[in-house]
Amino acid sequence: MITASANLNLMIKAARKAARSLLKDFGEVENLQVSSKSAGDFVSRADIKAEQIIREDLTEGRPNYGWMGEESEPVPGKDPTRRWIVDPLDGTTNFLHGMPHWAISIALEHKDEIVAAVIFDPVKDEMFTAEKGAGAWMNDRRMRVSDRRNMIEMVFATGIPFANNPALPQHLKQLAKISPQCAGLRRWGAAALDLAYVGAGRFDGFWEMGLKPWDIAAGLLILREAGGLVEPLAPGADLLTSGGLIAANGAAFERFAADIRSA
Known about the structure:
By secondary structure, the protein is α+β, with helices and mostly antiparallel strands. 38% of the residues lie in helices and 24% in strands. It is built from seven helices and 13 strands. The strands form two sheets. It has an eight-stranded mixed β-sheet with strand order 2-1-3-4-5-6-7-8, with helices on both faces. The chain starts with 5 loop residues before the first helix and ends with a helix.
């Protein structure tokens, strides 16, 4: 891996520290499955504890930076141009059900642009990182998006709305448009890892609605630095805050995006 900046090293350290806490709690989840309420409360506490660990480490290292986290109120920094955007546990439902597919996501924003990113999957010990202009990496290996060009060979990821979400009918139309053209669709329940997997060439594309900035901030940079393309689902919308996005390798993006939007 190339030499990381001081900021990226700080982010990696914070992610690994929070991961130790989450892995310990993940080992306890299996014992709580008999009561969904107690298991949910337990995971909520694990989530909040992980965010506190990350926040303490990042704030100690960069006390002037702002903060946006899933489990806490945003805080403006003394330096108004920089802020951390953090999801301490992306894939909470997977975690709750004892499924080993979840991650910690940390992004650094400078002047409204993501400049450093970490997505850490502790169960698989996969650390996805990127800095603006320096490429994307998984552990010590350079990442690139896939070069597949035929839709029938491609595997796409998405997030299906749940719990009577009003967006479900639209999403079902999108599924009906894409499914007959590709080799498979996956709904793995962790948007940060979906974006990282497109960057690593494991998925060829990804789309989802209803996302929050902390779900995608780190993944956007990792994907782009790996050579991928990403746009808001609604053309012209703000990518970080609009809630919907489309991402893919360069060869697939134009057709993939057109099909999703037409549905």
